[in-house]
From TrEMBL:
Domain HTH tetR-type residue range list: 14-74
Originating species: Streptomyces goshikiensis
This protein's UniProt keywords: DNA-binding, Transcription, Transcription regulation
Record bears the keyword Transcription regulation: yes
Name of the protein in its database record: TetR/AcrR family transcriptional regulator
Length: 196
């Protein structure tokens, strides 16, 4: 008879996690990162402070959970795109992936800058970076067999370095559309290599 209770607790914990992450997103959108505290998130989510601290321990834990949750949403959206009728080409998939990544970084810029500041090279060892690299590598290898797909995957991921992306957006004043056009130029160059 303990199994149903355990399932209910897991479902309740999952609901609380979603409530906490949604509350953190609302607070970030309204007040920015400087005002984000676990106490404020608990109040906004309508859960006890202990619930938030048990799950995330500290603010960086909450930040990484938000990043991981946003990554999962991005991956699900990309998988839906790839499953559409007509099977998109490697070039179309690569373009959709890179454009989606630009939107993901734009939407999470403050969180990613904080993560980069706390562990500057940490992103290169993170599961999302490895996953992105493998995905891009596969699409590049399909688009242009014989190129150094691993190197090109690194190159195509460089524009998403939070500090560089933020510099382009704030200091250079570039909009996300310009960044996407630059990525399109890189994709065209890779595709042209395959056509030779």
């Amino acid at each position: 008879m303990t199994a149903p209770t355990e399932r209910a607790e897991r479902a309740d914990a999952a609901r609380n996690r979603l409530r906490i992450l949604d509350a953190a997103r609302r607070l970030l959108a309204a007040d920015g990162f400087a005002e984000l505290s676990l106490d404020a998130v608990a109040k906004e989510a309508g859960v006890g402070v202990g619930t938030v601290y048990r799950r995330f321990q500290h603010r960086p834990g909450l930040v990484y959970a938000l990043i991981e949750d946003n990554e999962a949403r991005f991956q699900a959206s990309f998988a839906r795109y790839c499953a559409t009728d007509g099977a998109p080409s490697a070039r179309d998939r690569l373009r959709a992936f890179l454009h989606g990544m630009a939107d993901l970084v734009e939407d999470n810029r403050a969180l990613l800058l904080l993560a980069e500041a706390s562990a500057p090279a940490g992103r290169y060892r993170s599961a999302p970076f490895r996953r992105h690299h493998e995905q891009i590598l596969g699409m590049v290898a399909e688009l242009a067999p014989g190129v150094d797909a691993a190197y090109l995957a690194d190159l195509l991921l460089m524009p998403y370095t939070p500090g560089l992306f933020d510099f382009q957006r704030t200091e250079r004043g570039w909009d996300v559309a310009r960044i996407k056009r630059g990525l399109d130029t890189l994709i065209a160059g890779i595709a042209a290599t395959a056509e030779r």
